[in-house]
Design brief:
13 strands; three-stranded antiparallel sheet; YjdM
């Protein structure tokens, strides 16, 4: 069995094949050896808690009560967020929430509507 390549993002050795893609279980990076690495770096794939791919302009729902840093209030489960914008970083969703204002969320705490 030929050795699989390490992940180009985190250099993990635990990659596996999924169809014609290679997948890293540690950082969730997916890539294809047939495409240019520059093209893959420009594409960012953001998935919600259920594994659905998110795109700019999607509407999502919060799936867990979240404490808001710098405030005594919490963002309640079931809060709907409209017109999200995807950004780079750990908190990869930029949005405005009614009653809270501008906020950044992690995609693992939302699900697509």
């Amino acid at each position: 069995m030929p050795a699989l390549p390490n992940c180009p993002k985190c250099n993990s050795e635990y990659t596996y094949e999924d169809g014609n893609l290679f997948v890293c279980p540690e950082c969730a990076h997916e890539w294809n050896l047939d495409t240019d690495s520059e093209k893959m770096e420009d594409e960012k794939i953001v998935k919600d808690a259920n594994g659905n791919v998110l795109i700019d302009g999607d509407s999502v729902t919060v799936i867990k009560d979240l404490k808001v840093k710098g405030s005594s209030s919490t963002l309640k489960i079931g809060t709907k967020v409209k017109s999200i914008r995807l950004v780079d970083g750990e908190h990869n969703i930029d949005c405005k929430i009614e009653g809270f204002g501008a906020m950044k969320l992690k995609s693992e705490f939302v699900k697509k509507i």
